[in-house]
Amino acid sequence: MLRTLKDRGCGRLVLTGSVFEADEGAGSAPLRAFSPYGLSKTLTAAAAAFYADRESFTFEKFVIPNPFGPYEEPRFTAYLMKTWLAGETARVQTPRYVRDNIHVILLAKAYAGFVGAAPPPGALRRLNPSGYPESQGAFAERVRREASARLGLPCALELGEQREFPEPPVRINTELLDAAALDWDESAAWDKFTEYYAR
To answer: How many CA atoms lie within 13 A of 71 on its CB side?
Structure first.
């Protein structure tokens, strides 16, 4: 595939990785892949780097943490919003895990800036964008606060007593983004997030 691309004038490979890969981000040591998904992304990155080097491609990596926002996969924040809109209390079972949740609009702007910039020759170019690196309990409270202010609902929240850590306690990305430089309006992003679920 890379040889075909090179024949057509392409010499740049941008790979989207995951903070759940081995040796990505920062957090609890060792930074191993802790899920089959993380393992698959680790192996993909290793293969892509190997073949990019062999075919003399510029290899770049954009590492994604936990995106949330409009049209997201129905995971943590989807559960929170659907529970609150039903007038129920949301419960966070793992409030002590420290993760990195990033609004998808900010993530998209960072990605567009990354791929739109001309890569410097030589060393691997990468970006590990960070959004809200905090405990899941603190992040749930952040979502509660933003949603409650916009919906006029109490958005009741209950944090469980987490005693077991089958996953690494901390795994976050490493580069806080300059929202102003990316023309990202945090309040407007929360507006869109809340409106999406309200609809």
So the answer is: 2
Q: What is the pLDDT of residues 85-133, one digit of tens each?
A: 999 999 999 999 999 999 999 999 999 999 999 877 766 889 999 999 9
CATH number assigned to the domain comprising residue 103:
3.40.50.720
**Can you spell out the DSSP letters for 77-108?**
HHHHHHHHHTT--EEES-TT-EEEEEEHHHHH
Among candidate residues 126, 89, 98, the one with its CA nearest the CA of residue 110 = 126
- For 65-187, strand residue ranges (E) read 66-68, 90-92, 98-103, 125-127, 129-130, 132-135, 157-159, 171-172, 175-176
Number of domains in the chain: 1
Q: Is 101 helix (H, G, I), strand (E, B) or coil?
A: strand
Containing structural domain, residue 88:
2-198
Taking a C-beta distance cutoff of 8 angstroms, is the pair 41, 22 a contact? no
